[in-house]
Structures are given as C-alpha cells and as structure tokens.
Amino acid sequence: MSRQVLRLIADQWTPLVIYALEDGTMRFGQLLKRIGGISRKMLAQSLRAMERNGLVQRVVYPVVPPIVEYSLTPLGQTLVEPMKVLGNWAYGHMHEVALARTAYDQRDHTPLQDEVAALVEQR
C-alpha cells in the first residue's frame, strides 16, 4: 500500500505540477511554460495520472477551439505544504549532498568489486 501511495507523488513531474498549480488554475500551455524541461507528452501523462488519482481537476469549456483548464483539487492542495517541506530540505542540503557524492566518487571501489566478483565465481 505505501508503495502505491508514494507512486502518486514520487515521480519527476508531479511535485512540479503541484508547485505550478499552487498559484491557481492554469491552461496546458501555461503549465508547459511554467515547468521547464517537461515535454508536452510528459505533461499530458502527468496531468492525466494526477486527475485519475484525484489530485487535479480538468475542466473543458465547449468553445472552438476548446479551452482546457487544470487546478488542484482539495486533495491535491493537501500536498502543497509537504512538497514545500521537501523542497526546502533539498535546497537546504544540496551542498551536503554534493559533498557526499564527491567523496563517494573519489573512493576506491575496487575492493568491493573484487569481493563481488569472487562471490560470483564461487557460484
């Protein structure tokens, strides 16, 4: 069950869509501009999944061409604060994470690789 819940929000784009829609209702093109680096296809897939999971409301106005607007549902709005907390943590600890990565990358991983190779050979 917990994995299913995490899958609702733990992809690359859902938090960014939540941040974008925190300011209110937006059209697809506005979201596309607001969320840098997302493709049209990924935005459409993310919005569809979020709508299916009750996080986003999609409203289509019957005009030509159709106008489609997206907004957070009350359930989606409950994610705004937790996402802010995670974002603050990430920004607050970016330097520490970068240092940890550098230290890890500079270590000699050969002994571990040799140990794994020996175990594989024993099988």
TrEMBL record:
* Organism of this sequence: Ktedonospora formicarum
Record-level Gene Ontology MF annotations: DNA binding
> What is the name of this protein?
Putative HTH-type transcriptional regulator YtfH
Q: Which residues form the HTH hxlR-type domain?
A: 1-98
Whichever gene encodes this chain, its name is ytfH
Q: Is-annotated flag, keyword DNA repair?
A: no
Which keywords, in A-to-Z order, does the entry hold?
DNA-binding, Transcription, Transcription regulation
- What InterPro entries does the database record attribute to this sequence? HTH_HxlR, WH-like_DNA-bd_sf, WH_DNA-bd_sf
- PROSITE patterns named in the record: HTH_HXLR
